[in-house]
Amino acid sequence: CTPARPSPALLGGVGTPVTGCEGGGPGADTHPFRNEALVMVAAGDRHVAAVTDRGVVWLWGLNHQEQLGAVPRLLNGLSFRSTPARWAATVCGGVPVVMVACGEEHTLALTRAGHVWSCGCGMFGQTGQAHRGRIVEPVQVPGVERITLVAAGRQHSLAVAQDGRLWSWGDHYLLPHANDEWLPADSDRTQHP
Question: How many CB atoms lie within 10 A of CB 191?
């Protein structure tokens, strides 16, 4: 994935209106999370994801590799979102999200059902899909179930299952398995499920 540099404008504080950006300016909503409490937040290289107590995902920051997933597109055509935008209720199969993780240019979401969903740059297999393309709308990572924790590095992803197994996928020189698969592999096997 090719790095892109955001404009000199910096990411404002959560809910801080930024003139000239979608959601900012006079009359903007200064508390985008409304009546929801944040229960976790994760930071990637140039993007942020947060989860509310209702299982709603909010994202903001750079989106040049679709790492923000299914957020509404900016009207000005820029790939930088300075104010949080939420995923629709139908994202992640309509199941509430309990945890997020952000890599350099990808995002993971863990649902209450124990499934992992991914979006963003998949060039190194970090999205857990069988292709290297960008993922705009989050898709479920195949074969990885009953997950309790997720983590994302620069170009790799990790998940811990209820039984304690560690699943990993992405840039393999950073991972505990030695295969050349781009699909998830667990710590007990060297093949994807």
Answer: 10
% of residues, the chain, pLDDT over 70:
69
97-119 pLDDT, tens digit per residue, is 999 999 999 999 999 999 999 99
Taking the C-alpha atoms of residue 193 and residue 20, their distance in angstroms, rounded to an integer, is 47
DSSP state of 169: E
Q: Rounded CA gap, 63 and 172, in Å?
A: 25
**What is the distance between the alpha carbons of residues 74 and 46, in angstroms, rounded to a whole number?**
17
Is residue 92 classed as helix, strand or coil in its secondary structure? helix
Q: 51 in the Ramachandran plot: left (φ > 0), alpha (ψ -120 to 50) or beta? A: beta
Encode pLDDT of 9-26 as tens digits.
Answer: 333 444 433 333 334 433
CA 163 to CA 64: how far, in whole Å?
Answer: 36
Question: Pick from 163, 160, 159, 165: which is nearest to 189 by CA?
Answer: 165
Return the H-helix or E-strand segment holding 148: strand 147-152
